[in-house]
């Protein structure tokens, strides 16, 4: 008698598909039912993208601009042109596409970081249903776009297919990330550090660093040339680094965050120079590229003269980025709901507060567990650095060095809740991994007793 064997269903694939489909559905429901309006930087992105779609180039208020990274508004502008509309609703569908692509990258990343299907699926479910990742489809900002690019960068470091394809792709995606957030110009050093601590081959690591850096530079170069032609000086990506450095590091700053330029501490000479460049308030700060070298020099001078105060502001920036909950979701992704709105009710207010409570708890828990993970990872990385043979795994290296990169950047420049967005999927993995390790330790100990 012949026995017919039945193939067991692939529960992992089924679970992945269900989580992904439900997560995408949640994003669509949010888009359709939660009202928001682009304001501040988000409104600037929208105007630039609309100008690109309408054939006016990368301009703002009728002038060429490079105040922020060009990556997101350019990609959004191209999308607007393809779909034939510059409506904010179309921008949200673009974000939904990017968010879905990020999910499709995140699970393979987690599977490469851990052999445990349950742990990978748990971390993936956390990312898929994270309130921030759902809500930000509403936001016309660089966060969703950068998260996708960053996920692609991590993916390309983990999966070792044809190096003659993978390395150039990695350089291109790092270049696109740099065109979106200029701090990624330094990212090849992070990727090379991961490579070296994993392989312990100095020559190969240097070749990797050089290769990735050259492709990244080639990706960024056309925009740099454009900036030189428009502003008659070398501006690799944007001209706001000095502006941001100075506003976040001056004697009048007590929060570590952004403050109006008029309120920042300045000598009479500096204030006079600023007023002349801004034509006494008639010119937009976003168009005043001449401010950048002036403010960068002042920001550096203050930091060197006040290292302890700088350290205090840096700590405040990290607190604002990783330990201030999810207030940004309410401010940017659902800001058309407010007490004066016609649809505002006590029930709605209660629902919003409950939603915020859940989102806040998740961010606090993820950040706390992730910082513990990174702390242990940094110690291991330093030990490995001074050992010729001690290699580290991707599980420890990639989250540790990448999260540390963001921590360092925000410590120096600017911190606020939405800046944690690109790295949230790594925080989720670290949190689940750390929680699992703690749980296994508790189970191994048998029981907890209080004396």
TrEMBL record:
Where, by residue number, does the polypeptide cross the bilayer? 12-30, 93-113, 133-158, 170-197, 206-225, 361-382, 394-413, 419-439
> Coiled coil located at which positions?
none
Superkingdom is: Bacteria
The principal location of this protein is: membrane
Concerning InterPro entries, the annotation shows:
LipidA_mod_glycosyltrf_83 (IPR050297), RgtA/B/C-like (IPR038731)
Annotated Glycosyltransferase RgtA/B/C/D-like domain ranges read 76-223
Q: What is this entry's stated membrane topology?
A: Multi-pass membrane protein
- Alphabetically list the UniProt keywords: Cell membrane, Glycosyltransferase, Membrane, Transferase, Transmembrane, Transmembrane helix
Q: Where is this chain's protein located in or outside the cell?
A: Cell membrane
**Keyword Cell cycle among record annotations:** no
- PANTHER family linked: MANNOSYLTRANSFERASE YKCB-RELATED, MEMBRANE PROTEIN
What is the designated name of this protein?
Phospholipid carrier-dependent glycosyltransferase
Q: Which organism is it from?
A: Tumebacillus lipolyticus
């Amino acid at each position: 008698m012949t026995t017919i064997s039945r193939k067991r269903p692939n529960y992992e694939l089924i679970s992945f598909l269900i989580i992904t489909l439900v997560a995408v559905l949640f994003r669509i429901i949010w888009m359709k039912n939660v009202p928001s309006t682009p304001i501040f930087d988000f409104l600037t992105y929208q105007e630039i993208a609309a100008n690109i779609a309408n054939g006016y180039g990368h301009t703002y208020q009728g002038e060429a601009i490079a105040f922020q990274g060009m990556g997101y508004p350019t990609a959004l502008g191209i999308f607007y042109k393809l779909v034939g509309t510059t409506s904010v609703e179309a921008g949200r569908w673009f974000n939904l596409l990017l968010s879905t692509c990020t999910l499709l990258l995140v699970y393979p990343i987690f599977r490469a970081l851990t052999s445990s299907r349950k742990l990978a699926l748990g971390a993936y479910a956390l990312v898929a249903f994270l309130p921030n990742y759902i809500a930000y489809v509403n936001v016309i900002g660089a966060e969703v776009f950068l998260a996708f690019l960053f996920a692609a960068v991590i993916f390309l470091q983990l999966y070792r297919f044809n190096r003659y394809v993978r390395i150039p792709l990695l350089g291109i995606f790092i270049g696109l990330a740099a065109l979106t957030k200029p701090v990624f110009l330094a990212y090849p050093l992070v990727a090379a550090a991961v490579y070296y601590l994993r392989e312990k081959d100095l020559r190969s690591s240097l070749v990797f660093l050089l290769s990735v850096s050259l492709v990244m530079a080639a990706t960024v170069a056309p925009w740099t040339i454009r900036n030189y032609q428009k502003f008659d000086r070398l501006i690799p990506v944007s001209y706001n680094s000095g502006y941001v450095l100075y506003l976040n590091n001056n004697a009048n700053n007590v929060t570590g965050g952004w403050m109006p330029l008029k309120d920042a501490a300045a000598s009479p000479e500096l204030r006079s120079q600023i007023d002349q460049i801004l034509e006494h308030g008639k010119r937009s700060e976003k168009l005043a590229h001449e401010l950048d070298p002036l403010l960068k020099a002042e920001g550096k001078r203050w930091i060197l003269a006040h290292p302890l105060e700088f350290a205090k502001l840096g700590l405040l920036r990290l607190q604002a980025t990783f330990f201030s909950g999810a207030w940004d979701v309410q401010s940017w992704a659902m800001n058309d709901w407010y007490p004066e709105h016609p649809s505002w009710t006590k029930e709605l207010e209660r629902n919003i507060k409950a939603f915020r409570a859940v989102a806040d708890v998740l961010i606090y828990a993820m950040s706390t567990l992730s910082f513990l993970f990174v702390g242990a990872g940094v110690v291991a990385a330093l030990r490995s650095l001074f050992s010729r043979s001690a290699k580290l795994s991707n599980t420890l290296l990639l989250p540790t060095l990448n999260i540390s990169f963001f921590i360092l950047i925000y410590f120096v420049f600017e911190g606020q809740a939405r800046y944690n967005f690109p790295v949230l999927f790594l925080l989720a993995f670290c949190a689940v991994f750390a929680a699992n390790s703690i749980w296994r330790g508790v189970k191994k100990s048998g029981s907890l007793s209080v004396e």
